[in-house]
Amino acid sequence: MKIKINNKNYKAEEGELLYAVCKRNKIKIPTLCGTKEHHEGLCRICVVEQGGRLVTSCNTKVCDGMEIVTESEKISKARRINLELLWADHAGKCVTCKKNRRCELQNLAEDQKIENFHFIPRKEEMTGGEELDLLKDNRSRVVVDEGNSAILRTTELCVECRRCINICPTKEFSFNNRAGDVVVGAPYEKPLDCIFCGQCAKNCPTGAITDKNDLQKVIAELDDLKKMTVALVDPAIFETIIFEQPEINSKNKLIGTLEAIGFEKVFDLGFGIELALQKMADKIKSSGKNNLILSHCPSFNLYIEKYYPQFKNNILDVENPDELMAEFIKNQYASEQKINPENIVVVSISSCVAKKIKKSDNLDYVITVRELGRIIRQKNIKFKDIKNSDFNKDLLPKNESSKGIIKTGGAAEILAKKTKAKYIVADGVDQIKNIFNDLSKGRVETKIIECMICEGGCVNGGGQTRKLK
Amino acid sequence: MAKKETKIITKNWGKINPQNIDEYISAGGYQSLFKFVKEMNPETALGEIKISGLCGRGGAGFPTGLKMESVQKESAAADGEKYFICNLDESEPGTYKDRAIVDSDPHMLLEGIILASLIVGAKKAFIYINGNYRKQIEILEKAVEQARKKVFIGQEILHSKYGLDIEIFSGAGAYICGEETALINSIEGKRGEPRTRPPFPTQCGLFGKPTAVNNAETIANIPWIIENGGAAYAKIGSKKSAGTKLFIVNGAVKNPCVVEVPLGIKLNDLIEKYAGGIQRGKEFWFAQVGGSSGRLALEKDLDMKLEYDREAKIPLGSGAILVVDKTVDIHELLLSWTSFFRRESCGKCVPCREGTFRLWEIAKRLQDGEVSERDVAAIQDILWTLNNTTFCPLGKFAATAFSDAVANFQKEIYKLSR
Fold this sequence. Notes:
The complex is a heterodimer. Chain A is of the alpha/beta class. Chain A is built from 16 helices and 17 strands. Chain B has 17 helices and 13 strands.
């Protein structure tokens, strides 16, 4: 069918969303609340004009002969007012915010040229005692959840876009309360107790859900000359770090940058992956049991503990590659190189948030791509001067193909080749549910089961970063 | 004044014991159900409703016949399951017509629900009632029990092929749950907030099945239409909208009342004849037509006709009329409207959630009438965005009365301080 956008003809498919047609044809429409799969039409910023009426482009389906205008005075007025209303409720002090310069609300305000905030009462306008209560009222609906070591939530910065509600694979979040008192949170505002896949933190447009981190400690360790700080670089992050810092456009540039911000040795996690794969292969060979579950997805381990505890014993008891490698570095490597293990600080740069929960003492810190981006921005380095570099030669993987485990199915494939066993693979919580329901009823019988919580595997992990704009 | 005698919904009020089904039957009740089962089928009954010109009494005034027809047509669905919902979530401030119906004649409502469900082909009907109506829930529960004993509800109604079960579902009293998609969400156990349309509930409603949601007052008209025919109903009322309507007149009138009057009556007549006129010593200022979300009728609008008309300047809404005299402080009214909508917004979309909150905040600061030009601009912006960009009509409602007040009573509201 044909539709008219800004007086130009475009082709569209039956049932397609207006926003999708515009995006395909490079017509820019600002949005805030939508994700790839979910369009609820909450933020009312993606409005376009249809016959003088404002409609939201994100959840309006095209119909034949539709005529749409995407830029007009009315539209920009609507976008401006709604954005200003959001800002009025957004208590952020941008400079201190973890998402500063990576915040979609901030970007939108810049795009729409918001210059002042009309809707926030000024102090001199608050005179009577009752009016001062208004300020309190504004603050009363702040919920801060820091009860875990991976994800930090502050509803003060939340714009109630519901991305986290929609994207969460185990549906931990919902709206609490009504109207202006709405806060996003777990039921009854309990502290978060989930599988910590981190997809909410990855998709949050503002700083409301972020990584709980010890960035200042990491930076202090980097600057500490007595300590030897080493980085373990997850192969899943090479392609996404560019979204955090456009100058880092290759693996070698990334390694060079890491060295420049103070990591003394940058190791390839591939070494650890091979250690883990070898351990898993040994266990599979020696075990007489069927339905062995691979354990390299920490979020999935938490999922099993929480939702299918009866299969807890089927999980192969092998630590994460990061753990194994950290252990190796602090023991064998340290004694070979004659370094006091207490002076070694191992930082894993990972695409996984759940590793923060599952980490043990050998691994000192786990930071996500987003956090790495923040460290780089804080260090304020000049990318001109950074030379390309390569991984430290001391610990290299024997075989590059082992890095296939960052995609769903990769580990099972490699292990199946090694052990000549059958395997099944589940990608995302929906498939996992199906497989485990079948397993519970005994309808499935195989040797190896690989499950990844993040769809596609670690390349789409919760610790990754997104392309903005 | 022959038409004054026309009573459809209130004909039994005060004459029978509402809690006794036999008294309702001896007053001619459930005759329409007998007539439907014996002489009619869903198609002919729907024809009568379409002829009658009955419109939704909840506020929007959508033709009831059309709504029922689209649900009746939807039989093609695989299992043919459909639902009928009676919307009794009356929470518009100053509106209590549906409550009055349940209080005075619950069986008429019940008969209407049974008839309407059979017409659309629903095997299950819900009565979604405001959770604050404790007493009315009890009355309805008793009425349903009595009707079940008489085989008016059950697997085989009056030993015919028709079957229906009725469930009373108590909401928690949220205003937004009067909106049909929010109401459906609420019955499904979800958060009470509106859904995106299309799909409309008539195609994909409760549990994804075709669903008709009708206001209680609308439904209470159906037994009369089935009994006396659609043509007879169409003769009552005005050209544009047929039938009678329950009006609630409140405020500065001598006799605040709930009264059934044919549609098309002039606002002035309603106030003078039925509510006894303005209280002594007071002077008419304006009247709010249709509850908190209604527009304001000024003195020059007093001879407007009260009817369902898409082009009407002042829509009828739920039929609640608040008469305001000149002693009232407009600031208090502004605050009461805004605090209602601030509380009742569901919080789903930005303009309504944030806009109603900021409007309330300004109204609170406006109490002394002192306001900066900045606030005046903010009020205009918020009203505009509420009116143009909200997800569901609640946002629009939140702006109507406030906009009218700001447009007409600028002098009274603002004492500009710079």
